[in-house]
């Protein structure tokens, strides 16, 4: 030890043991250590980078603690809590003006750093992106501004690599094999190392990364899986599963546990449950459904109704922390691809023991509600039960009997018809209550793909929603609200399904857009769902209703899962959670466990509720993105034989580089690039959802009617391109430009001088 180090040791020795706020922690090895918070506190207090010996002295680390202390520091280093400089001194990233975050890649080679502190995104140029992949967690430093005035960053250190495996296609470049990732945000090709499985050029493979990208080297991977040729049936799903890292194989432990489960309800499973097998409960689902979460029953109760919603008791078989639970939590939800489902639970449960199949006993958790004449829930209770589904009905069957009075459908329902008629009467009352509550009801068109024998799309057809769908939806909403109310009143933590109102920024843009149509949204800075619903009602008969509805919908935020109950804006509920689908959604399973814990006088704690909510929201988005990828690829394959055909459609989205057009009847969307809009410079107006010509003042905006020609359907990128043939867009008729437009045109001319403005076709 040098004289300087000895002096430092004398000054700092005993600091940790003398500090009254120090928390001693036990490692698995039984060695006491200072907490992470205390280490950060010491670094903050000293205000300078500290060498390992100096820091150890400051914390009074004994020789026998040294190994465990260094492990803790390395763990903090991996998570970006501390850093090592070139002199091997430990420091706080914030003190060095360093920023932690996650990399978001772009197909064109650049990217952004999404900051952990929620600050403004930092631009990462192609040079910086050569060191990382999309999704990596890094520490970066701001080194200046890019040509657009954005903060530009440089990667200082990679904290965590997002990808251990990558799916892509093999290419042969001058005798060297590379894999081009299917995720275009991974903009670097991966060199294929020897020793892996052999794959031919053009085949789809999975590579295990044995060398991550760096400043000096291209990423390197070994082929561990050959999936097949790009156009093989079902390949689009295999790619999506691996691209989005969706768990699609159950663990050996989960499969073993599922095999040991009984096929039927056992006598001991009935203990502590109410017997409602005599209640004529029925399931109502789509024709192709295989897992049945919910069954319903309704009867008159004085001036109101008794509504019984029985939900499969998945929590009885899936124990918290067990093998099935671990797999279910990792999946988060079932994923529904065209022609294939990736279930959250093994089929022994999802299609069997936990599915409310007809004519068999099943375990359930019941929401038993008393609903008043105006649709208000006057009372409810939850209880575990054993039930017996009397019939498996479909939406179309129920709609045909109740609304079309189809004789065959009526006959098929037999003695169940009176109960369903009462259910329909209750549904009408709940609908009126929904309107009074002010819930937003956007009209959207769902589609269904029909496939040929080769497994490719034969046609895409609209999926009609009838009143039988809405009937079941209202029953499920009522049960979900009661579940939320029950947990809130009993002060038990849970995952709520929250939907916040619009941000002030989006609200301002919406109001500006509506003003052009002489419309206004009520509610000031804090509009309610009722304000949205009133405006929708006011505009529903207008010819531009679809445009207005689309813009209103896009002003709202995405619903997520959170333990912080802020209500559900769109449904106009102060408190709402998911209770009705524990077979296919992990949050519902957690809610079931919480309800049963309250009923038993206990408390259920799965861990950090906030962390679980973030994970469940992520898996939901992941499933949506994977499904969208598959659907886009299938649509591209469907359209590639129709190159040159013309179609009518509507502008579904306006972006800086062109117009997305949704085709009538075909239900396929593609891009008209900005360069194909005419001989003019077109400028994007985000608030107005339009592209406007600088010289002609021709505006292309959301919902405009167009006629287009299909010119490209690229399977590699899943992108469809159109050429604009005819449009309803007309020159804007104005006596003069607004001040905003004068500034916009002036700015556009200045950009064009620098060759960075809009695109022109001449």
Which key terms come to mind for this protein?
single chain; 762 residues; alpha+beta; five-stranded antiparallel β-sheet; five-stranded mixed β-barrel; 36 strands; 31% helix; globular; disordered N terminus; disordered C terminus
Question: What do you see in this structure?
Answer:
- The chain is of the alpha+beta class and 762 residues long.
- It is built from 20 helices and 36 strands.
- Strand 33 (690-693) and strand 34 form a beta hairpin.
- Helix 7 (235-243) packs antiparallel against helix 19 (609-639) and helix 8 (252-260) crosses helix 9.
- Mean pLDDT is 87; it is low at 1-31 and 733-762.
Helices and strands in order:
Blueprint: H1 3-12, H2 15-18, E1 24-26, E2 32-34, H3 36-46, E3 50-51, H4 52-58, H5 66-78, E4 83-84, E5 89-91, E6 98-105, E7 111-115, E8 122-124, H6 126-129, E9 137-145, E10 151-160, E11 165-173, E12 176-181, E13 190-192, E14 203-211, E15 220-229, H7 235-243, H8 252-260, E16 274-275, E17 282-285, E18 294-301, E19 304-312, H9 323-331, E20 335-337, E21 340-342, H10 347-353, E22 361-371, E23 377-388, E24 391-394, H11 395-402, H12 407-413, H13 417-437, E25 446-451, E26 457-463, H14 467-489, E27 496-498, H15 504-515, H16 529-539, H17 545-554, E28 560-562, H18 586-599, H19 609-639, E29 646-655, E30 658-663, E31 669-673, E32 682-685, E33 690-693, E34 699-701, E35 705-714, E36 719-727, H20 739-753
Parallel strand pairs: 13-15, 16-23, 17-24, 31-36
Antiparallel strand pairs: 1-2, 3-5, 4-5, 6-7, 6-9, 7-8, 9-10, 11-12, 11-14, 12-13, 14-15, 18-19, 19-22, 20-21, 22-23, 25-26, 27-28, 29-30, 29-35, 30-31, 32-33, 33-34, 35-36
Helix pairs in contact: 1-4, 7-19, 8-9, 11-12, 13-14
């Amino acid at each position: 030890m040098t004289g300087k180090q000895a002096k430092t040791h004398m000054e700092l020795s005993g600091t940790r043991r003398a500090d009254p706020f120090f928390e001693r922690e036990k490692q698995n090895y039984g060695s006491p250590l200072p907490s992470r918070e205390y280490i950060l506190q010491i670094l903050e207090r000293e205000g300078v980078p500290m060498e390992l010996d100096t820091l150890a002295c400051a914390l009074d680390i004994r020789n026998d603690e040294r190994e465990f202390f260094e492990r803790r520091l390395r763990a903090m280093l991996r998570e970006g809590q501390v850093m090592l400089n070139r002199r091997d001194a430990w420091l706080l990233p914030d003190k060095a003006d360093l920023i932690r975050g996650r990399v978001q890649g772009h197909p064109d080679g650049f990217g952004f750093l999404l900051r952990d502190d929620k600050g403004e995104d930092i631009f990462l140029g192609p040079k910086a992106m050569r060191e990382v992949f999309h999704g990596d967690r890094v520490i970066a430093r701001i080194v200046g501004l890019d040509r657009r005035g954005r903060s530009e960053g440089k990667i200082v250190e990679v904290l965590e690599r997002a990808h251990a495996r990558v799916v892509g296609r093999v290419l042969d470049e001058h005798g060297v094999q590379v894999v081009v990732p299917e995720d275009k945000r991974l903009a670097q090709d991966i060199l294929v190392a020897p020793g892996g499985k052999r794959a031919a050029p053009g085949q789809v493979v999975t590579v295990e990364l044995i060398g991550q990208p760096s400043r000096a080297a291209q990423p390197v991977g070994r082929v561990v899986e050959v999936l097949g040729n790009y156009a093989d049936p079902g390949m689009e799903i295999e790619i999506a599963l691996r691209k989005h890292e969706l768990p699609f194989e159950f663990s050996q432990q989960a499969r073993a546990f599922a095999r040991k489960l009984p096929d039927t309800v056992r006598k001991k499973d009935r203990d502590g449950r109410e017997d409602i097998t005599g209640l004529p409960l029925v399931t109502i689902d789509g024709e192709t459904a295989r897992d049945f979460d919910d069954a319903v029953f309704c009867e008159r109760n004085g001036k109101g109704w008794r509504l019984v919603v029985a939900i499969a008791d998945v929590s009885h078989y899936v124990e918290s922390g067990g093998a099935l639970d671990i797999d279910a939590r990792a999946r988060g939800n079932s994923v529904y691809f065209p022609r294939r489902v990736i279930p959250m639970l093994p089929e022994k449960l999802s299609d069997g023991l936990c599915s409310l199949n007809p004519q068999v006993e099943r375990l359930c958790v019941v929401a038993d509600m008393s609903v008043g004449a105006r649709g208000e829930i006057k009372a409810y209770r939850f209880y575990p039960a054993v039930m017996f589904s009397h019939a498996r009905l479909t939406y179309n069957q129920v709609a045909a009997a109740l609304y079309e009075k189809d004789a065959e459908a009526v006959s098929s329902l037999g003695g169940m018809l009176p109960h369903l008629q009462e259910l329909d009467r209750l549904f009408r009352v709940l609908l009126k209550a929904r309107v009074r509550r002010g819930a937003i009801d956007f009209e959207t068109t769902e589609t269904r793909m029909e496939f040929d024998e080769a497994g490719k799309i034969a046609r895409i057809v609209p999926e009609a929603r009838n009143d039988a769908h809405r009937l079941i939806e209202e029953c499920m909403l009522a049960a979900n609200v009661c579940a939320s109310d029950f947990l809130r009143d009993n002060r038990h933590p849970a995952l709520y399904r929250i939907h916040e109102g619009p941000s002030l920024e989006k609200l301002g843009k919406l109001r500006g857009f509506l003003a052009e149509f002489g419309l206004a949204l009520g509610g000031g800075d804090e509009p309610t769902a009722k304000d949205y619903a009133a405006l929708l009602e006011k505009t529903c008969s207008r010819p531009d209703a679809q445009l207005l509805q689309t813009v209103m919908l896009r002003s709202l935020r995405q619903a997520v899962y959170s333990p912080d109950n802020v209500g559900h804006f769109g449904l106009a509920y102060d408190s709402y959670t998911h209770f009705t689908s524990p077979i296919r959604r992990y949050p519902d399973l957690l809610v079931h466990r919480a309800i049963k814990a309250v009923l038993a006088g206990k408390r259920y704690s799965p861990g950090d509720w906030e962390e679980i909510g973030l994970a469940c929201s992520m898996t939901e988005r992941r499933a949506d993105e994977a499904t969208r990828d598959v659907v886009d690829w299938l649509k591209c394959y469907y359209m590639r034989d129709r190159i040159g055909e013309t179609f009518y459609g509507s502008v579904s989205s306006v972006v800086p580089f062109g117009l997305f057009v949704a085709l009538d009847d075909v239900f396929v969307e593609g891009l008209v690039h900005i360069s194909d809009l005419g001989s003019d410079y077109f400028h994007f107006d985000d608030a107005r959802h339009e592209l406007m010509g600088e010289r002609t003042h021709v505006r292309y905006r959301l919902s405009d009617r167009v006629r287009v020609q299909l010119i490209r359907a690229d399977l590699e990128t899943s992108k469809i391109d159109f050429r604009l043939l005819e449009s309803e867009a007309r020159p804007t008729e104005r006596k003069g430009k607004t001040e905003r437009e004068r500034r916009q045109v002036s700015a556009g001319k200045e950009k064009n001088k620098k060759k960075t403005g809009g695109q022109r076709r001449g």
